Amino acid sequence: MTEVLQKTSKEVYADVVAELAKTNGIKNPMAAPKITKVCLNMGVGRAAADGQIINIVADHLSLIAGQKAMVTKAKKSVAQFRSREGMKIGAKVTLRGDRMWAFLDKLINIAIPRIRDFRGISPKSFDKQGNYGLGITEQAIFPEVVLDRLEHNQGLDVTICIENSSKEISLSLLKGLGMPFRER
To answer: Which of 22, 83, 148, 180 is the most exposed, fewest CB within 10 Å of its CB?
Structure first.
């Protein structure tokens, strides 16, 4: 009986970074690009009308991330959004270490392929420092979310923070990890 063992993102990451350092002439291992954290954020505009929605969204984000979500509050009042200072308006989680790698594995190998009519993610969402931002329109693509209990389908923002990088190096790094970018 042969077992097919698939490498995790953390194991693939070491090989990809070594290859990137070699191709870009980086001799110091501390100067190589490094994924430091993954930030998940859900903004809930409907929370102004129904305050219980924020608790449901925070629970779903906690399930997705594997870590308790923190409820965020408005910093200032905005009349157009019907929000007041101190009002609960979203939830966020910052993942580091093993939880970050587990989430990246789940995102790349399970969640993104479950997106309906998927043609690849945009390679244009990098900032100047090489961090990548990804907007997911519905949290139902994650296996932890039970569809029968899903009352409010909510999108979320995922930010992958990468140190010592540029747009091009970050794109190569994420492609090496298996992120399915669409062709330009």
So the answer is: 148
Domain tally, the chain: 1
Do the beta carbons of residue 131 and residue 159 sit within 8 Å?
yes
Average pLDDT over all residues of the chain: 84
Dist. CA 150–CA 3, nearest whole Å? 36
* Interatomic CA distance for residues 8 and 105, integer angstroms: 7
The distance from CA 12 to its chain's CA centroid, rounded to whole angstroms, is: 18
pLDDT by residue (tens digit) across 24-36?
A: 888 988 888 999 9
CB atoms within 10 A of CB 83: 19
pTM for the model stands at 0.86
Identity of the amino acid at 99: R
Q: Is residue 54 part of a domain?
A: yes
The 10 Å Cβ neighbour count of residue 178 is 15
Identify the CATH number of the domain in which residue 68 sits.
3.30.1440.10
* Selection from 162, 116, 110 nearest residue 137 by Cα: 116
Chain length of the chain: 184
Nearest CA-CA partner of 16 in 96, 142, 108: 108
